[in-house]
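Cross-check.
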Amino acid sequence: MNNSPLHTFHIPVLGLCYSIDTPLKVARYGISSVVSIIEDELIEDMRAYHSLKNGLSFSPIPEKRFDSRAQRITAYLDMMHDLVQAQIAQLTALPFTEGSDMLRYFELLPTSSATRMKFEFMMKEKDGDEQIRLQEELRTEILPGAIDVNIMAKVDNPRYTDGGELMGFEFSDALSAFRGFANSKLSSSVVFSAGYNPRLYSYVEEFVDFFPDQLGYLRKKIILKVSDYRSALIQGKLLAKKGVWVSEFRVESGLNCGGHAFPTEGLLLGPILEEFRINRLNLREELYQLCSQAISEKSKPGFNDIPEQRISAQGGVGTSKEQSFLLEYFNLDSIGWGSPFLLVPEATNVDNETLQQLATAQQDDYYLSNASPLGVPFNNFRRSSSEAQRKARIEKNRAGSPCYKKYLSSNTEFTPMPICTASRQYQQLKEKQVRTPEVSEEEVQGELNKIMEKDCLCEGLTASVRLKNEMYLPHKLSAVSICPGPNLAYFSGVFSLKQIIDHIYGRDNIQNGLYRPNMFVNELRMYVDYLKNQITESTGSINDKQQRYFKKFKSNLLDGVAYYKAMLSHFACKSNANSELCALELQLSYLLTGQPLTIL
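Predicted model, tokenized:
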């Protein structure tokens, strides 16, 4: 049986709730997706919801039970595993009749895949016995999509007892979530995102499923979401020296993505993928040598052969031509399609009001904000009810949010225990600090505006699934935060699962009429704007450290322009792309030369 994924795209994690049960909707069609497992209260409620929906018994795991967070996550993942297995068993027993899920499974596959072509040949076969033989072959090729999980490494606050005593490190947010996955039935992958967490990486060693078994098989795998090749090499080595194999490096655009953005120093997606293309085999071989040595030193079973190491990319992909180019030119294994799936109710959880807002949004409705309490740029949506709530609270002199979940509590500026910068508590304390007789009202207001831009993501990023499914709303907080990538501006409307997959594979086109530059040009423009804003926001004269940073940033962008110009023959609209690259190159040439930025 072929165990490789049949689809050439995957659905990345979408916020805390938007892909929370996506595997239950798409895994039966062989589509892999990623679930956030950081919010255990939502996970417990989703387990209750799907248990009721599927006629399963439900035994709640109380919050006060020892290790409840990990246990809730394990129970939810086990339930999804069982439900998807049941779906696959039911699907494989279906006849190949019009309108059945059996036909739908194969009709959604890439047109060029061997399995899809065999399916089409079978459907045209006139010999009844031969057709039945081919049908039985096809049944054996049906595979569910992976139920992968995501852990943001930066979201790893310590936990305290009811009496205020610090609990052991293994009960921190990220480690307890990881334990929940590690103890589950799943044979799939955990995606580590948002940087390096040494405590989390070391914790992996405690679970046998992340090491090869007697047959050299990895029951659970590690996927690292990385911003560039250097990061992949460094983090890959750190894990390999522990005997832990990285099964996939998932490269994401620093700016042209949804959710939190992690801008590089001007390194663009094209040149980054080029470095992976050139060094992929060397990377795999180097990490394999380190990993094998570490496994041997631990006296554990080793790999029978050098294991697979996939390279994928995501962020800003919008057309089937871009999908095909990335796969073929850079020799990638899969492409992530995230934000467009927010417009697909069959796959994700967007409440109706927010769905209609996204379906009719304009380009300016998507913007890079400072709303995240993590202090990381955050792709935001101006028309969200959460943004409206934030502004209304400011108008009522009640800026900030009540803080119940505390996942993003990391500030100890005013309190011994960390609090969240989006919380009302923090913002009131900060206002008292900055509002002094020595500071002008204009300066005070400027500082307060920065503070009050922070928004509660813990509540806002979980509300939508509760509204869509008419579930219980904790604390009666119904405002929705949503964080699409800017690429969603080129999609308008609400789409079926078939429509978007046909778009990905070039069998349909669901983009709106808005002119859309090539994905690489779009990302370059975002980086040029980002650099200009960084320079503009530098108060006073630029110091030596800033000067070096800005010059390196500019140099990397210019190198990226040169790289894209050299590969213009691969772009769909060569003349447009060339003129757009030249215009952006001209803008860059003025930066840091003393020329006024207004000419840009």
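Confidence is low (pLDDT under 50) at residues 596-600. The two ends are 57 Å apart (CA to CA). Passed to J.P. for a second look.
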